[in-house]
Amino acid sequence: MEENNITLHVQNPDGSRTTLEAPVDMGLSLMEYLKACEYDILATCGGMALCATCCVDVLEGEDKLNEMSDDEYAMLDTLPDVLPNSRLACQLQLNPAMDGLVVKLHHAE
Q: Is 33 helix (H, G, I), strand (E, B) or coil?
């Protein structure tokens, strides 16, 4: 793995996990990276924390993430099925501390 990359894991609906190598030196959010990997994320608002269509459930590594902003909390609070470990992928800037993070797309059942 390159020095400027981290490993992320996406849990699929069937329970299997896909391992991805993500760059941390391009200023990408988790939402932008997952969209680039062709995951089904709408991101209707373009990453402004206004729509919650990029919601992910953090299965492992929640302690590695930045604190939730008031805007992110307010938007998540509008979802009927939000979980304690749900976050907006647009608000999670990829960084070295996120190495090994495991997420699941919130809407994927």
A: helix
